[in-house]
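CATEGORY: protein folding

GOAL: derive structure tokens
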Amino acid sequence: MSLVRLRLDLAYDGTDFAGWARQPGLRTVEATLVEALARVLRQPAVQVTVAGRTDAGVHAQGQVAHADVDAQAWEAMPGRSSRTPEESLVIRLTGVLPPDVVVHRVAVAPPGFDARFSALRRLYAYRICDTAARQDPLRRASVLRHRRALDVEAMDAASRLLLGRHDFAAFCKPREGATTIRTLENLSWTRPTRGADEGLVVARVQADAFCHSMVRALVGASLAVGEGRRPVTWPAELLASRKRDPGSAVAPAYGLTLEEVTYPPDEEVGLRAAQTRAIRSAEDIDRPCG
């Protein structure tokens, strides 16, 4: 069977999902998408690879996945209409997917494209409301309500000490055989004065990749600083220790959203995938800041 690799750009509300990855007996984004693809393509075994496996309750606005589909089924997608296969698949998926998952765009992927390994970086946002005057019941599933006022400047200062290529073992749930070395390109905290997030406390977290629970652990450490329970240098001290601290809580999932996944130009996606698959060396890290 001849296959065509497709890139799918999608978004979802993670509230009622047990995360991205398929799990027996649980509702997941992967299983929901695979079922929809199999139904509209009439292809029983569709394999989907995603840029970032989000945890239970985590949302996505800019998720990317790829799927290898039967070439004949792909070409037959428009039927008698004048639409392209890309347009037709988006329309048909919209008709069968539940309202908390939306595929915005479908395109034939460039040679060598891998949604996970070709990615240059992932950008997440974590949103917190620390004042009753800004609480919005319409955003209760995507913004964390926090009872204490937060020192955003202290949180931002602490976060900047973590930037660079480090072993983030102190902020990751361990997985056997998996590296915890990552390049944290940005971790900043602001209180926007305009736009949809006006008055909220918002983190922007960007890295080449993230290990399990890393973003929420970074947010949890930042909250301890913002509440005044820990000094600005504490997150950097955790980083240097390379050990999980029982006193460092992981922030709730629902405040976290995958905002964007960035890829290189089409002609470089194959090279990027090969580079990313290479094992990160334990010696290839920056010295912890602070």
Summary: Helices lie at 29-41, 71-75, 85-96, 152-160, 214-226, 234-241, 269-277. Residues 224 and 230 are 6 Å apart (CA to CA). The chain has a mean pLDDT of 92. The chain has seven helices and ten strands.
